[in-house]
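Question: does this match?
>
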Amino acid sequence: MVEWFIILGSALWFGVLTSISPCPLATNIAAVSFLSKQVNHTTQSLWMGAAYSSGRMSSYMVLAALLLYGVASTPKLSHFLQTQMNILLGPVLLLVGACLLGLIRLPSSSWGLSNQLQQHLAKQGQWGAFALGSIFALSFCPTSAALFFASLLPLIMAQQSSFWVPAIYGVGTAMPVLIISALLTLGTIQVANIYNQLTLVERCARRASGAIFLLAGFYYCWLYLMPFLR
């Protein structure tokens, strides 16, 4: 039980860290801004935010299931990951830590949705909000890709969980959306202040997490990789 709390807590933190990273944070705020223009009162805004958040969660769960069962259908790869996961984990943690600290810069993707398409989906009510969340969840930037594929995916495979771990991660990525959905009623100036504050929090959280990832990576390399190389 304690182990599961640690695993789900880690998944939630990865999600929160993803949500306040520059690219996902900007898309989340843009999406909520579009959605909020289609409603007349706060309750509707929260429902739209919840639908958007559910879309993000669904995409992560489907992607996790495809990756998990795709690996499971390849016996040799599945056996290799199950037996050598600890050896691989050290270098993976070092890579993620270096990306979070900006020591390694991965190429950014230019993929995105046009303004017109975002507005069109926003006008479709809760189903449009759900679709918008689903699509935005799959628009990985370097930081979110590192957190999902290099940090969350090993947890998913180790626990054989295509539901709870990615679902909790999805909750983490959606937490700012629900908060901003409610705070949008205060006006654009307040939202701009919130954005600036979250940017500062993201910088501090990313650096602290990057340092932790590096320390954990060195520990796993020393414990599992070094004996393997001797």
The CA atoms of residues 24 and 143 lie 9 Å apart. The first helix runs from residue 2 to 19. The chain is about 85% helix and 0% strand.
